[in-house]
């Protein structure tokens, strides 16, 4: 999708940020010692309890696998952006998405 057509992320509330931080730490641990192959990343996330339905494949970032994990349930709007580098581990960031928005279509704005 062209960048101009992407949906804007939503601001997470304090409870959503806390929720996202816990899952980000879990994903980081799950991907420790995982190879830099998209299939290995998905398999490690599956073993950690993230079913395929929650994992959205994205275009690789600098050749490294990139996925988004949909954690939107109940009233939360939490999603994670995960880029896995076999040498540097996983870089996991949280962002907010409207409940019905396809995660591939939400603009990602890095924290910081």
User: Strand fraction band?
Assistant: 25-35%
Largest sheet: 4 strands, antiparallel
Described by the principal axes of the CA atoms, the overall outline is: globular
Q: Count all strands and give the number.
A: 4
Poorly predicted spans:
none
Mean pLDDT: 88
Helix count, per DSSP?
2
The spatial strand order of the largest sheet comes to 1-2-3-4
Class by alpha and beta content: alpha+beta
- Rg value: 13 Å
SSE string: HHEEEE
Structure at a glance:
This protein has 112 residues and is α+β, with helices and mostly antiparallel strands. The chain has helices at 14-30, 38-47, and strands at residues 55-61, 64-70, 78-85, 89-96. Helices cover 24% and strands 27% of the residues.
Describe this entry's structure for a reader:
This protein has a domain at 31-100. Helices cover 24% and strands 27% of the residues. The protein contains 2 helices and 4 strands. It has helices at residues 14-30, 38-47, and strands at 55-61, 64-70, 78-85, 89-96. Strands 1-2-3-4 form a 4-stranded antiparallel β-sheet, with helices on one face. The two termini are 25 Å apart. The model has no long low-confidence stretch (mean pLDDT 88).
């Amino acid at each position: 999708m062209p960048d101009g057509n992407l949906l804007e992320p939503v601001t997470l509330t304090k409870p959503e940020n806390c929720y996202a931080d816990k899952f980000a730490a879990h994903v980081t641990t799950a991907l420790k010692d995982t190879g830099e192959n998209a299939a290995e990343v998905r398999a490690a996330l599956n073993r950690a309890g993230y079913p395929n339905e929650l994992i959205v494949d994205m275009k690789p970032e600098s050749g490294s696998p990139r996925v988004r994990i949909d954690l939107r349930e109940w009233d939360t709007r939490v999603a994670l952006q995960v880029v896995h580098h076999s040498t540097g581990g996983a870089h996991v960031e949280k962002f907010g998405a409207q409940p019905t928005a396809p995660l591939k279509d939400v603009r990602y704005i890095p924290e910081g």
